[in-house]
């Protein structure tokens, strides 16, 4: 299996700004851990079936694969 580089991005600047405004809370730590986990293994989590991906996501972000990563206590 060939490991490809994985780049994690926020959906938009508003989401990125909201994340950056989080204090050093458990939520921010959980999200940071999730980002590291996803970079290390892009297939961690649960794959959402393609027929359940909202067409808005496909049109707006040009994505065809969606994975769900559960945060602790979520």
What would you say this structure looks like, in words?
By secondary structure, the protein is mainly alpha-helical. The protein has one domain. The protein contains three helices and two strands; from the N terminus they run ααβαβ. It has a two-stranded antiparallel sheet with strand order 1-2.
Keywords:
42% helix, mainly alpha, 74 residues, single chain, two-stranded antiparallel ribbon
What oligomeric arrangement do these chains adopt? single chain
Number of strands: 2
Classify the secondary structure makeup into a structural class. mainly alpha
The order of strands across the largest sheet is 1-2
Low-pLDDT parts are none
Strand content: 5-15%
Coarse shape? globular
Please bin the fraction of helical residues: 40-55%
**Number of helical segments?**
3
Brief summary:
With 74 residues, the chain is mainly α.
Secondary structure topology:
Blueprint: H1 13-21, H2 26-40, E1 46-48, H3 55-61, E2 66-68
Antiparallel strand pairs: 1-2
């Amino acid at each position: 299996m060939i490991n490809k580089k994985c780049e994690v991005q926020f959906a938009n600047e508003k989401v990125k700004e909201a994340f950056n405004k989080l204090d050093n809370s458990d939520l921010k730590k959980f999200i940071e851990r999730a980002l590291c986990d996803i970079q290390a293994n892009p297939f961690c989590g649960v794959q959402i079936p393609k027929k359940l991906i909202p067409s808005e996501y496909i049109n707006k972000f040009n994505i065809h694969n969606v994975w769900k990563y559960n945060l602790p206590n979520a």
